[in-house]
Amino acid sequence: MTVSAFLAARGLSVTLAGRLVLNDVSLALSSGHLVALVGPNGAGKTTLLRALAGLVPSEGAIEVGGAALSSLTLRERARRFAYLPQGHIVHWPLPARDIVALGRYPHGTTDPARLTPKDTEAVLRAMQGTVRRRAQPRRAGAGARGGSAGDLGGRADRIARSASPVRCDEKSARERR
Question: What are the angstrom distances between the C-alpha of 166 and each of 36, 51, 60, 173?
């Protein structure tokens, strides 16, 4: 894998329910770039993201910042990766700021209502350019505001630092038309 790659995979394969769904995928992503993963339904986009975050069993090598993914503790993985599934459900009305603040948990925060000045700064930085409102009880994939913001509070290294991330899925894009 390349030394300059921030996230790299070599020979990545995933088998789910006895079916090979990813076969020999290799990639090297450098820091500070926005990457789009595009493909038809069932192509393996979500599986690839889950494998790169260590959320599904895989074969091959995955490195994060030069370290093997398998060598990272769960807390270190949580500091580096944020994953919000498309079908995420928000069960109660909650200010988007509090959802973002949940991403500070791997950094030592235990209560989004009692943030340290450092955590508050990280949350506000993550929310720059967003509209602040309450997340309503509904599926995030169906357009719940703030639902995808929960992964931003952790300042996960995977999030492009120079660009504001935009998360769209096919269903929410259709609903906006």
Answer: 10, 21, 29, 12
Count the Cβ atoms, other than its own, within 10 Å of residue 158.
20
Give, in order, the Cα–Cα distances in Å from 101 to each of 47, 125, 149. Answer: 26, 11, 9
- Is domain 1-72 annotated with CATH 3.30.565.10? no
SS (H, E, C) 64-129: ECCEEHHHCCHHHHHHHCCCCCCCCECCCCEEHHHHHHHCCHHHCCCCCCCCCHHHHHHHHHHCCC
Integer Cα distance of 121 and 167 in angstroms: 22
CA angle 64, 111, 140 (to 5 degrees): 65
Coil vs helix vs strand at 166: coil
User: In the chain, where does the domain assigned CATH 3.40.50.300 lie?
Assistant: 1-72
CA 7 to mean position of chain CA atoms? 13
7-62 residue pLDDT tens? 999 999 999 999 999 999 999 998 878 888 999 999 999 999 999 999 999 999 99
pTM of structure:
0.61
As given in the structure block, the two tokens for residue 163 are 């660009």
